[in-house]
Amino acid sequence: MKLLASTAELSEGGFKTKTLDGLEIIVGKADGRYFAIQDLCPHAYVNISYGHIEGCAITCPWHGFTYDVHSGECVSWAGTDGLNRFPIEVKDGDIYMLEKQD
Ligand code: FES
Q1: Are 64 and 77 in contact (CB under 8 A)?
Q2: Residue 32 to residues 75, 81, 101: CA-CA distances in angstroms?
Q3: Per-residue pLDDT of the chain (102 residues; tens, 9 = 90+)
Q4: Which residue ranges have their beta carbon within 6 Å of ligand 1?
Q5: What does pTM read for this prediction?
Q6: Ligand 1 atom nearest to CA at 46
Q7: Class of 2-97 in CATH
Q8: For ligand 1, atom 4: residue with the closest CA
Q9: Separate counts of helices (H) and strands (E) for the chain
Q10: Where are the domains positioned within the chain?
């Protein structure tokens, strides 16, 4: 379990980035739930953290693809690869990344 952020750091619709083990990660809060995703748009492999969140959707600033931050699915172009998500646990006001299960 690796610490990503404190819940106090994240307001609704907000996120921060963190590098863990060489991976750039976005941790944030959308629709009242926390999430962790790789900071990488699968369309052209650029940082999606330059985008913005509305509801559960993050929109990539490069070509406008939109992804659900909780499911990882691309909701603007069916069949497009989704975001790489990470399982998290919220405990005592902190958000931890759990080991990824394949
Ligand atoms: S790089 Fe994100 S939509 Fe193209």
Answers
A1: no
A2: 20, 25, 24
A3: 999 999 999 999 999 999 998 999 999 999 999 999 999 999 999 999 999 999 999 999 999 999 999 999 999 998 899 999 999 999 999 999 998 655
A4: 41, 43-44, 46, 60, 62-63, 65
A5: 0.93
A6: 1
A7: mainly beta
A8: 63
A9: 0, 9
A10: 2-97
